[in-house]
What we know:
Elements (H helix, E strand, L loop, with lengths): L9 H42 L5 H37 L4 H11 L4 E10 L9 E9 L2 H13 L3 E14 L2 E12 L8
Antiparallel strand pairs: 1-2, 2-4, 3-4
Amino acid sequence: MTKSPNLIPMHRQVRVSRANRLRAWAYGGGALLAILAIAWFGCEMAWSQVLAPPPDAFAKATTEISRANEESASLRRQLASLREQVAARQSVTDRPDVSVLLAVLSQATADGVVLSHCELTYRDPRAAEPPQLLKMAGAARNQPAVAAFMLTLEGTGLFKNVTLVRSNQQQLMNTHVAGFQVECLIGPGQGGAK
């Protein structure tokens, strides 16, 4: 069998061949891109379902954040109160300020306790740094009120010790009350906040 001659010019044959190859590459590349796009979309859907938080996760997180904010606000208030107490203790123990001491005493005095005398003295004037002594006298509704007042004074942390000098029953306006005298040695105590 003899081959018939091709009468199409060579440059046209090359151009048709090149066009056919380009078309084949374009179809193949398009098919590959379609397959990759479908695979990417499938993976994206699978990962979004795996990584998506549960429906109530945002509500739980919001609740936890608001609870943490409330706790931190409460802790900030406690810290401010403790700083005020420390400042009061330092001002009383380091450089006495009678107004601060009187404010602490007014807070420590309950409804059933009345002070009639307060005196701030030095315990031993001959010492290099004599400790200060606060002497108080007054009346309370009863003996348990005197004890509660002393415990409150110890709880302030301003005093090394609180000593009951005397306590007796007295007549005050047709009622019997517990008269008392207390001495408090000023210095870091054990009853206050550490």
